[in-house]
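Hi all, posting the design record for the shared folder.

TITLE: backbone redesign
STEP: 1 of 1
STRUCTURE INPUT:
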């Protein structure tokens, strides 16, 4: 299974593309889509869509794992980031890619084993699990890889229902 992990943003969209096969990870690509500051939001959104579409056409991911929005301090960027996230979800849907969403707590729990893990711990585990020479320099890229790993770890397990919001929407009591 090829998984596209996404850490959404308006200035920087981190991405990580991994293949998960026979309980083993292979890193296919990782990096970021960056949009210039002081550019109209509609232009930035178009840049994100176009570059993400190009990645999808190259790597043909079957599934996308994306981080849920979480804002605790900078409320000013909330709307543009939400708009970018919407464009990312639309791009995945239009390309027939199934989408799963994970909270930062879920990602840390899956990758490190502790939901309150520090950023350095997550980076270290991403490096180890993917057998990278070093962790990616950008936090957004490392986070995207961690999100992809989280999906690989939970996407096909019985835990998926607990991590995926669709479980609660379709569950009958």
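Okay, here is what came back for every position:
SEQUENCE:
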């Amino acid at each position: 299974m090829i998984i596209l992990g996404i850490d959404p943003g308006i200035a920087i969209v981190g991405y990580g593309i991994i293949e998960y096969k026979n309980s083993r990870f292979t890193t296919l690509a990782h990096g970021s889509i960056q949009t210039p500051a002081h550019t109209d939001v509609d232009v930035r959104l178009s840049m994100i869509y176009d570059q993400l579409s190009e990645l999808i056409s190259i790597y043909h991911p079957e599934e996308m794992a994306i981080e849920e929005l979480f804002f605790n301090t900078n409320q000013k960027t909330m709307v543009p980031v939400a708009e970018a996230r919407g464009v990312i979800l639309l791009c995945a849907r239009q390309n027939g890619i199934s989408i799963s969403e994970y909270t930062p707590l879920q990602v840390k729990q899956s990758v490190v084993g502790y939901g309150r893990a520090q950023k350095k711990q997550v980076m270290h585990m991403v490096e180890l699990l993917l057998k990278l020479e070093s962790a990616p320099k950008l936090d957004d890229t490392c986070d995207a890889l961690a999100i992809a790993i989280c999906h690989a770890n939970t996407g096909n397990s019985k835990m998926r229902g607990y991590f995926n919001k669709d479980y609660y929407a379709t569950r009958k009591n």
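COMMENT: Residues 157-173 have pLDDT under 50 and may be disordered.
Let me know if anyone wants the other runs.
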